[in-house]
User: What shape does this take?
Amino acid sequence: MTSGGKKQIKVGILGATGTVGQRFIQLLSAHPYFKIHALGASSRSAGQEYAKATKWKLNTPIPDEIKTKVVQECKPTAEGFAECGVVFSGLDHDVAGDIEESFRQSNLIIFSNAKNYRRDPLCPLIVPLVNPSHLSIIAHQKKTLGLEKGYIVTNANCSTTGLVVPLAALEKGFGPLKTVMVTTLQAISGSGYPGVPSLDILDNVVPHIGGEEEKIEWETNKILGGLNSSNTEFDLHVSEEGKYGRINVSATTTRVPVIDGHTASVSVKFRDSKPTIEEIQKAFREYRCEAQELNVPSAPPQAIVLHEAPDRPQPRLDRDLHNGACVSVGRVRPCPVFDVKFICLVDNVRLGAATSSIMNAEIAVEKGLIV
Ligand SMILES: NC(=O)c1ccc[n+]([C@@H]2O[C@H](COP(=O)([O-])OP(=O)(O)OC[C@H]3O[C@@H](n4cnc5c(N)ncnc54)[C@H](OP(=O)(O)O)[C@@H]3O)[C@@H](O)[C@H]2O)c1
Assistant: This one.
């Protein structure tokens, strides 16, 4: 039973042995709404006890009740998945598309970290500190696909997640943005385990992460965009010339020798307004979101932590704030080209991945979308 007296919902984890999967296990092992029931990974791991199948990389031990749990193949018919009220996915994108669809077709509810369904016109792309209202498209998704219960909700690329939270605070305070320029400094764990070879990343910066810039430019507009009044279509602002997106976003992504925590340098131009730096700092400090109003278990007390020190945020010092569930913002200053520039930091595996999926599912529980 949960602390509120509700029955805990059984959950499955796909990709349970990977970087994101391990965070799911850590975060769900003592969760008030959810109880881990089934674990899935590739055929290399299936049939083995979890502790043997995974290379555990977190600084807390594998929870006792998980160590001897047998990893299953990622099939909806594999032991345990049919009883799950939610299935969290930390699958590689090259396999996530087909596997997640097979779970949805079996009337299971998927909360996914993979990129495969983020652009799907029926699937919400949700950063829980920004746009949980997009969950309203789920009824249309189920109806269109003729499914009684199954649906897919995705969360964003890890860098996009860290970016859109401060951008949402700016739009809430001062109206639409016109242009965003962002350069990221992304952690090694962002590419999963074992990730970039040490000889490529130590003493180095790699100025290219395949597909990442397009994800930031595209996803930002879906997340900050609207849903029509009948909750059936996202407003993606495609112009007659085919130009996509309400906000012009230009991203440059780099990989740096940091284990966890993606940093971004951001410059923003507003469409109509010209707030002062003090007003912008206040908007960051006072930003509140629906996850906080609903008081779901993973919602951080502050969605944005505004740092005053000129040398913050830093990944090593700030990624653990509020258990990695918030975005740190600092160095808010005038931009001589646009209006304002700042630095933001997100824990890429927590708010950037597992925490977002879990918080999205908590919100879905509160909205009666998971029973
Ligand atoms: N790392 C991050 O910061 C981050 C942030 C946001 C989103 N994501 C996304 O989350 C997903 C997982 O990323 P990750 O970093 O956790 O990757 P990872 O460490 O490489 O883990 C991948 C997982 O997928 C499983 N898998 C691989 N091939 C499979 C197959 N054919 N059938 C079933 N399972 C298979 C692996 O199982 P085995 O152990 O058995 O091989 C493992 O559990 C990706 O889509 C990634 O883009 C990652």
User: Anything to note?
Assistant: The chain has two domains: 9-157+354-366, 158-353. The domain at 158-353 is CATH 3.30.360.10 (Dihydrodipicolinate Reductase; domain 2). The chain has a mean pLDDT of 96.
